[in-house]
UniProtKB/TrEMBL annotation:
Residues 2-69 form the DUF512 domain. The lineage of its organism: Bacteria, Pseudomonadati, Calditrichota, Calditrichia, Calditrichales. InterPro entries: DUF512. Pfam families: DUF512 (PF04459). This is DUF512 domain-containing protein.
Amino acid sequence: PVVNKWYGPSIQVSGLLVARDIYETLSRKKLGDVVLLPPRVLNDDGYFLDDWTLEDLQQKLGVPCHVYDGNLAYLPEELATLSVAS
């Protein structure tokens, strides 16, 4: 899990995750082909709360990042679409 250092570890909702915390957690891990992020991590303008963009995070991690729509029933279809697009 990603520890929310920005707002404190007791905060555990995706809408209050910042890209820097995601990066700090994932940069120490061996990553697969894509990073899936929960819905609501980006605001309506496409920014994380710390003003990073999805592209910023992708560039720093070196793998594509995708925010799924929140409906886990459709996640396999979204993953298949990502595989086709790669």
